[in-house]
Amino acid sequence: MSFADLRKDYSLAGLAEKDLARDPFRQFETWFQEAEAARIPEPNAMVLSTATKEGRPSSRTVLLKAMDGRGFVFFTNYESRKGREIENNPAASLLFPWIGLERQVIVEGTLHRVTREESTAYFHSRPRTSQLGAWVSRQSSVVADRSALESSMKALEQKYAGAEVPIPPFWGGYRLAPDAVEFWQGRRSRLHDRLRFRRDRPGGNWVVERLSP
Question: What is the pLDDT of residues 124-180, one digit of tens each?
Fold first, then answer.
């Protein structure tokens, strides 16, 4: 296989400044709805990149569970690798790879924990097995084998049989408050459209910039 020979000329659409919504959240909603309509698999899947306080990066795919004018929300184990990195270095980025539409959205900003009330409300909206799974998984830690996880799951099913599963103290949500959101649309000859919303100052107005591809 020659990776160098793999290429595609993008031609589905373009992105002009006049077509943008007035803020990145409205524009994201429009593109997300189009991703859903196009049956993009897991349209809320996003690559979360974090880094240690020394700047060593790591990435993984998580699921967007809420979005409003405050930012983009996902839930996780606070004691996981990502959780530890976020506590020491809250700067992060998100990438939505909507390849089927020849699009991607890149969000840069700062992560903060959501309120405990928000985390609890979402936790109890999850399937019961997922609630139990949050207790079973000490995310990113080494486990002996698969059977150790399955045994822990059975023990918790018995422990909470007929009772509400409480939210783990080590589990909850983060909200990424963006200071930049880039909308990337593939174009022919690699002359892609890249339009970025950027705060003109912390908490300030959004300005739109076209970036060179």
Answer: 999 999 999 999 998 888 988 999 999 999 999 999 999 999 999 999 999 999 999
Round to whole Å and give the CA distance between 137 and 83: 14
Is residue 190 part of the annotated active site? The answer reads: yes
| Helix residue ranges, H only, 56-199 | 81-88, 116-123, 128-136, 146-159
- 111: three-class secondary structure by DSSP: strand
Q: pTM for the full model?
A: 0.94
Cβ burial 26-58 (10 Å sphere, 16+ → b, else e)? ebbeebbeebeeeebeebbebebbbbeeeeeee
Cβ atoms of 160 and 179 within 8 Å: the answer is no
CA distances from 163 to 43, 119, 128, 167, 169 (A): 34, 19, 11, 13, 18
56, 116, 188, 190: which is the annotated catalytic residue? 190
